[in-house]
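Why do we care about 3D structure at all? Because function follows from shape, and shape follows, mostly, from sequence. That is the central idea of this module. The next example makes it concrete: a single protein chain, its amino acid sequence, and then its structure expressed as tokens.
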Amino acid sequence: MATPTGQARDPAMAGAWRTRWAAPPRLAYTSETKPFFLTSEFLAYVLYLMGLGIAAATSAQIDAWRFWFLATIATSAYMISRGIAKAASRSRARDPREDLDLGRREER
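And the structure:
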């Protein structure tokens, strides 16, 4: 079996994972971006929604329509900012589509 770092314990067994697993063991590598709950924009988003909710509950000027309109704009802006932040980052997840061999035929 592979060690937690993803390297074989025995050098002679280095290629043996191919016979046991569909995908190679992943080595740990860093990502460009942090998880969403560790970012400052998530904290600002949550604080904004909390403040907006308190203001909508206590003020007669902010009705339900305006609350949901502003919450939707804030949510859209947050999702766009996270999309831009993760646009060039490498995913840690294994994509099974990388293993597919659709449309490729071996030349004979």
